[in-house]
Every structure is written in C-alpha cells, then in structure tokens.
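Quick one, probably user error.
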C-alpha cells in the first residue's frame, strides 16, 4: 500500500490515467441522459399541448429514471473495480465491494450486544500484513424501536469492523469499550461500570490514562491483564487518539476485533453528474485504508510473543 506521504505521486502516475478514461465514459452517459431527457420531455410537452394528458410525461419520466439508475449502477461498479480496487490491491490485499464481514463474526466479537434487526455491509478487504492476517469491511447495524404505533430504526453501529489474527488462542474473552461513566463521574462511574450485568466481570488496570479512556470486561481476570500489557494499553490509547473515534476492541478465540465508528459511506463513487477526478476524496479513502493496514504495526500484531497452543 502506498504510504500517505507518497499518495500524491501514486495518484498522478497510477490513478489519474484510469480516472480520465472512466470520466470520459461517465460524460458520454451524462450526454445521453441529457439528450434523451430533452427529446422525451419535449415530445411529452407537445403531446400535452394536444391534450394527450399527463400520461406521456409520466412515461418519459419513468423511462429516464430507469435509464439513469441502470447506468449509475454500472458506473459505480466500474469506479469500484478500477479505482478503489487498484488502491487496495497495491500491496497484495484483496477487495470485494459486494462482500462484508459476516453478521456471525460481528456477533462473535461481543462488542455490541443489542439485538440486530438490520445488518448491512460492503467493501470487504482481506490479506496478510507482515505475518498477520487481517480483514475488514464497512458494517451498518440497526435495531427496531417500538414507540407505540410507530416503529423507528435506530443505529447500533456504523463504521469499519476490523478483524486480525492475534496469534494466541484465548481461554477467555476480554472486551475493551469506550469509557464514558468513569471519566465523567469518577468513582461513582466505576461503580456503575461494575453493575453492567450484560458483561463479564469488570477488570481494573493500573494505567490511569487507559482507564480514563476505556472500560474493560473479562471472563478471565488474569488473562485480561496478560493480554493488556502496559505497552499494548499505551498503543490502544494512541490508536484512539489518531482516529479521534470511540473505538472498541475485543480479544476472543485467537482474534482481535476492532470497531471504528465512521458516520459516512466509504469508498463510494461520486455522483454521475460530477467529475470523478477528485484528489481530495481519493486521498481521504486512502487515509482510511492506511489506518486499517497500520493497525498491525500500531498494535504490534506482527510480534509473535505467544503461540496458539
């Protein structure tokens, strides 16, 4: 993967030729839409003048809508296959924009316990970084809230769910969640944390900076402290600071699960009516890719201090 500091050069030498070719195809589609729209609307207005009613205009509108949707879908496919895939596969990672982290893996992470009524996701990335197998995708989960006669969908999580091999088969489960209560309420907040009956036992650690940012629950107190070494706690705090997000982590079986909230769709194609040669947008996409790839280095996952035995 191209380092962020080299992205400008990568953009000019690799991406821009692809963007120009796809943009020419996009413009040809837009020209067709405008031409068919002008002819169709013009013909409909003529028929309307001769008192043919609104039906011809409705037919024209429906036809233009389906024509646009068909070409917009094909355009998004072309963009993701030729631009996003090129960025992601630059370092040997694989990409499937129609796939996602499975709901069973989301549930296995134990990061979010609320019942899911809607599960969405796309832009699945997987591969090996150094010695560490990783995979991640966008995930969007919702639950149904009943308000009397009205039902509304509330968001549980929207962002990137990242999974990496931790090279150790954990005996228990350790969950690291953003801390709100203790940082706001001090000792009383710590008491409230201990009353979270949906979670395993509260694990208290001796790193005040980490404790200020996170609350830890675990089924095995000794193992939780063994996993969350002083070095790893410091790196998790650094990762939270770098992302400026309320990240959550869990250590289950032989994997680390990381949920990174992001309140937008990533890796989406621009509007069909706008140029796709958008350096700022692509640089932002590259930043998210780099963030996920760099988790391996930031959390030192390539250092094999344990075996899976």
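Nope, works fine. Designed sequence:
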């Amino acid at each position: 993967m191209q380092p962020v500091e080299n992205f400008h050069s990568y953009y000019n030498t690799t991406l821009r030729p692809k963007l120009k070719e796809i943009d020419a195809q996009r413009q040809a589609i837009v020209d067709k839409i405008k031409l068919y729209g002008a002819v169709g609307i013009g013909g409909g207005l003529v028929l309307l003048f001769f008192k043919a009613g609104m039906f011809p205009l409705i037919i024209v509108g429906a036809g233009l809508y389906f024509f646009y949707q068909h070409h917009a879908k094909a355009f998004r496919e072309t963009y993701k296959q030729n631009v996003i895939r090129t960025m992601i596969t630059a370092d040997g990672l694989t990409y499937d924009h129609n796939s996602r982290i499975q709901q069973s893996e989301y549930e296995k992470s134990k990061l979010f316990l609320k019942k899911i009524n809607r599960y969405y996701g796309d832009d699945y990335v997987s591969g090996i970084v150094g010695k560490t197998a990783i995979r991640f995708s966008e995930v969007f989960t919702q639950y149904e809230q009943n308000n009397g006669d009205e039902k509304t969908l509330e968001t549980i999580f929207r962002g990137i769910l990242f999974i990496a091999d931790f090279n150790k088969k954990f005996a228990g489960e350790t969950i690291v969640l953003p801390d709100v209560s203790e940082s706001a309420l001090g000792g009383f907040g710590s008491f409230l944390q201990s009353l979270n009956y949906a979670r395993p036992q509260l694990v208290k650690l001796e790193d005040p900076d980490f404790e200020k940012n996170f609350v830890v629950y675990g089924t095995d107190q000794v193992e939780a402290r063994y996993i969350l070494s002083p070095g790893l706690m410091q790196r998790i705090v650094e990762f939270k600071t770098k992302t400026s997000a309320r990240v959550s982590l869990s250590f289950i079986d032989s994997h680390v699960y990381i949920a990174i909230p992001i309140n937008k769709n990533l890796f989406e194609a621009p509007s069909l009516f706008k140029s796709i040669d958008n350096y700022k947008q692509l640089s932002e996409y590259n930043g998210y890719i780099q963030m996920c790839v760099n988790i391996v280095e930031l959390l030192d996952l390539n250092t094999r201090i344990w075996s899976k035995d």
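The two ends are 32 Å apart (CA to CA).
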